[in-house]
Design goal:
The chain is an alpha/beta fold. A 7-stranded mixed beta sheet has the order 1-15-13-12-11-9-10, sandwiched between helices. Strands 3, 4, 5, 6, 7 and 8 form a 6-stranded parallel beta sheet that branches. The longest helix has 18 residues.
């Protein structure tokens, strides 16, 4: 397989770090991890390595356990007691806990490894800074157009209430690339198998994005394998899709996300500004599947 790396750092927006946090000197960073899951642990590894390279001292990370998930009082007390210059939250469960401690302590914080931080952080909160797991639709579409130039109609399954802003952005940008995006709304994952065979003749590729409608590996396998049987390539968002037979996937690099979070925190502490930063990811192409699709197209053209 071959890989292409697409990184984006859009325009910067100013947010207010406290004057205390902007003072010179070694930084003591408190880190809270949502759960001991491999993606979070990889992000933590990248974060700790990069903090050390930037002469920032990470205090002993706090990892939330099933026992603490329902009662954060002990963890909250620990955060308020720590002698820290800034906080970092990894994952969605840790975000509101760290945000609350940051407000009470009046020190900066950054989040990372959160798919949709807007749902967890009030829009009025002025000191929000971090790296989400959200991949801009425009970047994905440009990579799709480059990798699958003859696949112009993209079908996307989604639940009724999820990803509305994403699809609006996707449909706007698709026109400039000569593509069309066809959102396929379903009430539950159970509706997808019944809709799939009817939609496949109407699309050139199946674009699968993180959504509550795609709720299991079994469903992913069914989508990818059924689409491929009908010579419709799938586009996924992690390595499992490639293993299942997707033609390409946008694969997040969790360790690099952790390192990028340290760089973002360092910049924020020194400048008081927070760049809107897309997570590091690779575009990985499944060359075996592409050859199969090309061979089928050649046979049809004879």
């Amino acid at each position: 397989m071959s890989a292409f790396i697409f990184l984006a750092v859009p325009g910067m927006k100013a947010i207010g770090a406290s004057q205390e946090s902007l003072q010179e000197g070694p930084r003591r960073i408190a880190v809270v991890v949502s759960r001991p899951l491999r993606p979070y642990m990889e992000a933590l590894k990248g974060l700790l390595t990069s903090l050390g390279q930037r002469r920032m001292h990470a205090l002993q990370p706090i990892t939330l356990s099933p026992e603490t998930q329902g009662d954060f009082r002990a963890v909250q007390s620990e955060l308020l007691r720590l002698s820290a210059d800034a906080f970092v939250s990894i994952g969605p469960e840790a975000l509101p806990l760290v945000q609350s401690a940051s407000i009470q302590r009046n020190i900066p914080w950054v989040y990372t490894m959160v798919l949709d931080p807007a749902k967890l952080v009030p829009h009025s909160e002025a000191t929000v800074c971090g790296i989400s797991l959200f991949l801009p639709a425009a970047e994905q579409l440009e990579a799709i157009a480059q990798t699958l130039p003859n696949r112009k109609r993209l079908g996307v399954f989604h639940s009724l209430t999820a990803n509305q802003a994403f699809f609006q952005e996707a449909m706007r940008h698709a026109q400039s690339l000569g593509l069309t995006v066809q959102p396929i709304a379903v009430q539950s994952p159970k509706d997808i198998p019944g809709r799939l065979t009817g939609i496949l003749p109407q699309v050139d590729a199946l674009w699968i994005v993180p959504d509550p409608a795609i709720d299991s590996k079994a469903l992913v396998e069914y989508l990818v394998e059924t689409a491929l049987y009908h010579n419709v390539p799938s586009i996924g968002y992690n390595r499992y899709f490639l293993e299942a037979g997707a033609a390409m996937a946008f694969v997040l690099d969790y360790e690099k996300i952790g390192a990028a979070t340290a760089a973002l925190l360092d910049f924020y502490l020194h400048s008081g500004r927070c760049p809107e930063t897309a997570p590091p990811y690779d575009v990985i192409v499944n060359e075996h599947v592409l050859r199969r699709l090309l061979d089928h197209s050649s046979e049809e053209g004879r």
